[in-house]
């Protein structure tokens, strides 16, 4: 009994049969492995721009003022444009074709980044990369989400592993850039940061081919070679019982806009996602570069600690939330860590060691991403079309905010102190706590109303059905 409890805590809901256990093993081995590798290359590409900037790209492209922030803003704009169309395309084009195709597009554009001669060319490339990379995060959460392949009790852990794979891409990027700068800088007449984009493209394309071969689409349409007929049937039967299926129509807009789910979940991630500004804007790398006294390799290596703590926090929190089914405590933990980190950095007279601690501690902000999307999957589990729109909208609104947020609060010209940014971070954490409570309250209220409605339905059925005495009389 104790071993089963430990097992459930570490890996989620325990399969009810050997067949289900074998099915889950195959899903994790093939679906989760590809999604994680795809997201790894997605974040590797994003982090490479940050690392290239502090490793020679700024000087070689003669970047001035907030050009670095503009690169990220233009990427975000492309990401926003591509988000909902990409997610809706997954209901038209098989995911095994759409995901790898988009990955090839951004892989080719990554190669192009290695040959730019000015920052304007990089602007154009990053916009189209944003459109293609928008397919990955929300699309994968839709595929992983309840009523597609995984149950709610299996979802948090897998979402955490998926999110951690993206963070691993960020972590690997810093190590890769330092190695490339040291060993490939100047080889073939190319700077080290240009080689970084080439290697990134070389890593991306084979993973796209792997996706073409092994990704299984969705349970109702899959014909993938590694699932037996019995396993395909089970993959539908174990999930379909509580899901309402609708044909794609304008009724979808009515369902989405008449409920609180779209508004509440979108607001939650639009605000809470900005706590990731510590890592997404490479504030630690910019701080180290601005204060001086650190080598290029150190500026690339040291911020990896932020990502490492983020991976640890994500996996621990995902494990805990799957076991307890409570998502909100993770957002409280994340807000606490980021508030403490912001205060430590805001007090500029604090020792350097404390600033290192603060930046690393802020890595906890990444834990909220997987949990928030697992929570939204759980809330919208009864309507897969609404869930697709809600997940895409959450990421869309977060990126809509993120398009201007760094320019306003974290401009490169504010390095190394980022005073405005730290004040904004404290306010963001406070707002996150407020919206977290709101979503928790609305979910609880919806559950109470659904339970009451179900009880009334049962009572009505009892009243409508004849009693045994009435049956005897008849």
How many helices? The count is 22
Broad structural category: mainly alpha
In whole angstroms, the N-to-C terminal distance is 52 Å
Order of helices and strands: HHHHHHHHHHHHHHHHHHHHHH
Helix percent reads over 70%
**Low-confidence runs:** none
- Specify the biggest β-sheet: none
Shape, per Cα inertia axes: globular
Mean pLDDT: 83
Question: How much is the radius of gyration in Å?
Answer: 24 Å
Give the percentage of residues in beta strands. Answer: under 5%
Description:
Helices cover 76% and strands 0% of the residues. With 474 residues, it is mainly α. Helix 2 packs across helix 9.
Short description:
The chain is an all-alpha fold and 474 residues long. It is 76% helix and 0% strand. Helix 7 (152-183) packs antiparallel against helix 8 (192-214).
What secondary-structure arrangement, pairings included, does this model have?
Layout: H1 2-11, H2 18-60, H3 67-89, H4 95-113, H5 119-133, H6 137-144, H7 152-183, H8 192-214, H9 229-237, H10 251-257, H11 261-272, H12 277-280, H13 283-291, H14 296-301, H15 304-324, H16 328-346, H17 352-361, H18 367-379, H19 384-402, H20 405-409, H21 419-464, H22 468-473
Helix pairs in contact: 1-15, 2-7, 2-8, 2-9, 3-5, 3-19, 4-5, 4-8, 6-19, 7-8, 7-15, 7-18, 11-18, 11-19, 11-21, 15-18, 16-17, 16-18, 16-21, 18-19
């Amino acid at each position: 009994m104790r071993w089963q409890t430990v097992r459930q805590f570490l890996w989620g809901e325990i399969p009810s049969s050997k067949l289900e256990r074998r099915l889950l093993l195959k899903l994790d081995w093939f679906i989760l492995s590809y999604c994680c590798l795809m997201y790894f290359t997605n974040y590797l590409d994003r982090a490479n721009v940050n690392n290239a900037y502090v490793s020679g790209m700024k000087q070689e492209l003669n970047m001035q003022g907030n050009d670095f922030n503009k690169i990220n803003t233009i990427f975000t704009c492309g990401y926003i444009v591509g988000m909902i169309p990409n997610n809706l395309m997954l209901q038209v084009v098989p995911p095994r074709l759409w995901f790898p195709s988009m990955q090839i597009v951004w892989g080719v554009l990554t190669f192009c980044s290695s040959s730019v001669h000015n920052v304007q060319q990089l602007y154009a490339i990053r916009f189209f990369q944003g459109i293609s990379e928008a397919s990955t995060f929300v699309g994968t959460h839709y595929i992983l989400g309840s009523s597609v392949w995984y149950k709610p009790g299996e979802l948090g852990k897998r979402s955490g592993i998926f999110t951690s794979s993206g963070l691993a891409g960020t972590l690997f990027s810093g190590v890769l850039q330092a190695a490339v700068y040291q060993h490939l800088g100047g080889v073939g007449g190319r700077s080290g940061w240009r080689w970084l984009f080439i290697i990134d493209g070389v890593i991306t394309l084979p993973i796209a081919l792997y996706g073409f071969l092994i990704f299984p689409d969705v349970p109702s349409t899959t014909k993938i070679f590694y699932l037996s007929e019995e396993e395909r049937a089970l993959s539908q039967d174990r999930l379909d019982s509580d899901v309402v299926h609708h044909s794609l129509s304008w009724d979808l807009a009515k369902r989405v806009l008449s409920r609180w789910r779209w508004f509440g979940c979108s607001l939650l991630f639009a605000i809470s996602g900005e706590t990731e500004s510590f890592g997404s804007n490479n504030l630690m790398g910019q701080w180290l570069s601005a204060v001086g006294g650190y080598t290029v390799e150190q500026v690339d290596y040291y911020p990896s600690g932020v990502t490492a703590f983020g991976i640890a926090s994500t996996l621990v929190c995902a494990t805990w939330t799957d076991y307890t089914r409570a998502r909100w405590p993770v957002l409280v933990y994340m807000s606490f860590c980021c508030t403490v980190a912001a205060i430590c950095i805001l007090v500029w007279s604090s020792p350097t060691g404390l600033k290192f601690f603060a930046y690393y501690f802020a890595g906890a902000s990444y834990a909220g991403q997987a949990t928030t999307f697992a929570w939204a999957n759980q809330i919208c589990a009864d309507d897969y079309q609404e869930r697709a729109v809600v997940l895409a909208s959450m990421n869309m609104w977060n990126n809509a905010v993120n398009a201007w947020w760094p320019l306003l609060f974290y401009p490169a010209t504010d390095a190394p102190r980022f005073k405005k940014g730290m004040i904004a971070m404290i306010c963001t954490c406070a707002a996150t706590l407020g919206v977290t409570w709101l979503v928790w309250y609305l979910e609880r209220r919806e559950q109470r109303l659904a339970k009451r409605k179900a009880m009334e339905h049962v009572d009505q059925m009892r009243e409508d059905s004849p009693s045994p005495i009435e049956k005897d009389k008849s």
